[in-house]
Here is the input.
Amino acid sequence: MSKRVKTHVKKNDEVVVISGNHKGETGKVLQVFPEKEQVLVEGVRLIKKHARRTQDRPDGGIIEKEGPIHISNVKLTTK
Here is the structure.
C-alpha cells in the first residue's frame, strides 16, 4: 500500500527558488515527484543530455532539459 505524500506545490504553480545554485530564479512547476521530494521547474537547472542518432533525430546532438530540484528549495510566489 502506497502512502500519499503531501506537498506545498503542485503542477502549474508559479514558484521561486529560495536556496541553492539557482536561488532567485522563478518559473512554472512542470512536474512534481512526491516520493523523491523533487520538482521540475520551467527554465531552472537546465542540464545538457547527449542524444544518439535516431530516425526522429538523424544528426543526434545535445538536448537541454530541466533537471529536478529538491522541493524544500522552492516556494510559491505571491500574486
About this structure: Residues 14-67 form one domain.
